[in-house]
Amino acid sequence: MKVMIVEDENFIALELERIAQEAGHQTIGPVSTVEQALAHAKRSDVALVDLSLSDGMSGAQLARRLIDRHGVDVIFVTGSPENVGHGIEGALDVISKPFTDERIASALSRAEERRKKFDSSKAAL
């Protein structure tokens, strides 16, 4: 699965990249702005998205566009999970910072299973 890392804090972005790669996924990025993320959306299956990016509190708006326009699954990874509220429709998960390797890997595994089920149901049509 192709995982886009959308995070403006370099150390956290590198940690997310390492976890995703160790879980067997290809990574795209890290990217730190909405514009960069949208440029890579077509090549991504899932995105790990922070709410606060280098261009402001734009993660929620980005997530909406990734989900609706590009069919990218979104997992929020944020230090402000309360700002997601009850979630954003279509987002798969909200993970609080600090996170564990297992929490990220588990969310990616669920995203991969969901994608496989979706792809197999499309193939059956």
From TrEMBL:
PROSITE patterns: RESPONSE_REGULATORY (PS50110). Keywords: DNA-binding, Phosphoprotein, Transcription, Transcription regulation, Two-component regulatory system. The modification 4-aspartylphosphate is found at residue 50. InterPro entries: CheY-like_superfamily, Sig_transdc_resp-reg_receiver, WalR-like. The keyword Phosphoprotein applies. Residues 2-112 form the Response regulatory domain. SUPFAM superfamilies: CheY-like. It holds the Pfam family Response_reg. NCBIfam families: PRK13435.1-1 (NF009970). This is Response regulator. It comes from Rhizobium ruizarguesonis.
